UniProtKB/TrEMBL annotation:
InterPro entries in alphabetical order: Restrct_endonuc_II_DpnII-like
Name of protein: Type II restriction enzyme
Domain Restriction endonuclease type II DpnII-like: 15-102
Single GO MF annotation: DNA binding
GO biological process: DNA restriction-modification system
Membrane-crossing segments per the record: none
Length: 119
């Protein structure tokens, strides 16, 4: 048995092997742990935004294209934490910044907002 600090020092493969070797037999299936109807609703809600982000795939200058895309559709920035599987908490300053994106009079992201994402 590892302490948390010892476990953190293991490489990814060692952590995975330890996890798998310590799983207990259970009569619980995935439905017990995951509310799949909620997941499906969330996927449907986000699928258009996520598909719009596919525009960036294969672009030579992805940073410039991302700036262009987020400048034209700033609401897409709110999908980023979900895309990278970041748990959203109100105390997280990144989430607070995403929720309080300031737009210029013409509806564009300010330079400072973009600089935060592309630093």
């Amino acid at each position: 048995m590892y302490s948390f600090e010892e476990f953190r020092k293991l490489n990814g493969e060692e952590q995975f092997n330890y996890f798998i070797s310590n799983l207990a037999t259970s009569n619980k299936n995935a439905e017990y742990f995951v509310n799949w109807s909620r997941v499906n609703d969330k996927v449907r809600e986000l699928s258009i935004s996520l598909n719009t982000l596919n525009y960036l795939l294969g672009k030579e200058n992805i940073k410039e294209e991302a700036r262009y895309l987020f400048n034209n559709q700033p609401e897409l920035l709110k999908v980023i934490p979900i895309l990278i599987a970041m748990r959203v908490t109100k105390k997280d300053p990144t989430i607070q910044i995403l929720e309080n994106i300031s737009l210029t009079k013409d509806g564009k992201l300010s330079y400072l907002d973009l600089k935060f994402f592309f630093a």
